[in-house]
Amino acid sequence: MKTNYKIIFPLMVILFAFSHCTREDKNDPCILTAKIRVKQTNTVLVEITNGVPPYSYSWSTSETTAEITGNPLPNVYSVTIIDALACTATDKVDSCKNFSVQLEVDDEFPDLSEEIKATASGGLPPYTYKWTFGTVIISDNYTSRYAGAGETVLVEVTDSRGCDTIAAYTNPCPCQHGGTCVDGICDCPLDYTGDSCQFACRGCTFCGADTIVTDAEGNVYATVSIGNQCWMAENLRVSAGIPEETDGTQWANLTTPAWCYHGNNSSNGVLYGKLYNWYAVNTGSLCPGGWHIPTDAEWQNLVDYLGGNAVAGGAMKDTTGWDAPNTGATNSSGFTALPGGGRSFSGNFYGIGNAAEFWTSTELNTDHGWGRELSYNNSDVYLSNLYKVYGESCRCVKD
């Protein structure tokens, strides 16, 4: 019988191809692979090798395409791929695994507040920052904050995908006599018999968790621990229900509380705060709860800790913002005094750029109160008796 090879040969080719396409041969298993790639945009895609198209895609986010885009996308992705021969491959990736934050510490003055700078990497900008100081939480876009001696600061950074990363730093708190600093007070070792441990151990904070303080109107102030006191590191900006007085003649005749901006220019208030007469100080309402305008004795405590009247001004003055020569300015205390000037008993403004003047809460007599003054051309802290109508800057100290 004559065999028809023209028919048999094509059939053999088809059967051979079919037997290999089914992938059922144990010597020819499925070798389909899938790899998820995360782009530095809100895009994720899967790369396929050793498969037979067309492919079907099943993402954990319910999408069915090779590339997915969203804003924001979730942190963890998984995908299952099926090719034309029913071979499957899966992959899973955490897009946040390389996201981190590093903290850099500026310890120019290691016994005082240290600046903590946060640098995020491996994420998708823009970033938001949440800083935690004890029970105080601040959410903003600042990449640095200050930690007082002995304090722990924690920062949580979030990128635009919703990835989170956290880092923490504790500012060391050196203690005299080998003691341990607890809430600003040195806990003396058992074999120590002196009394100096009853004061602040060197560099240990008296501000506790209060690295910032907020007044009744929402103004936020940095704080600084100096000696055994906790001070605001900025001038007051609060109104406290006290009226503003811009007219010079009216100001000169006041016997009631008032405040103003230097030069009646509100932009000066951003940097220098407000100027208050002593009647405003005497209301007792300027400082937040738990804080007060310092007495002259409390001012002298500060001055003595910084070396006395002849040198303390240099340790208190900011190194910038003053007229030359800004003699002796180091700001080693962190007080950051700026030359906000004042307003005289005649209602005239003076001293911006060359003088920082502060009220104390101590009264001298019916017409006068005590103030403190720093100048651009020396390192002194002056004690001044001023008419109560003078307009001066104010700081608060913690109770």
Question: What does it look like?
Answer:
There is one protein chain. The protein is mostly beta strands. The protein has three domains: 88 residues, Sandwich (Immunoglobulin-like); 71 residues, Sandwich (Immunoglobulin-like), CATH 2.60.40.10; 187 residues, no CATH class. The protein contains six helices and 27 strands. A four-stranded antiparallel beta sheet has the order 10-9-12-13, with no helix packed on it. It has a three-stranded antiparallel beta sheet with strand order 1-2-4, with no helix packed on it. A hairpin with a 7-residue loop joins strand 7 and strand 8. It is elongated, with a radius of gyration of 34 Å. The N and C termini lie far apart (118 Å).
The total beta strand count reads 27
Strand content: 25-35%
**Global geometry:** elongated
Largest sheet, if any? 4 strands, antiparallel
Helix content: 10-25%
Low-confidence stretches: 1-27, 192-204
- Cα-based radius of gyration, to the nearest Å: 34 Å
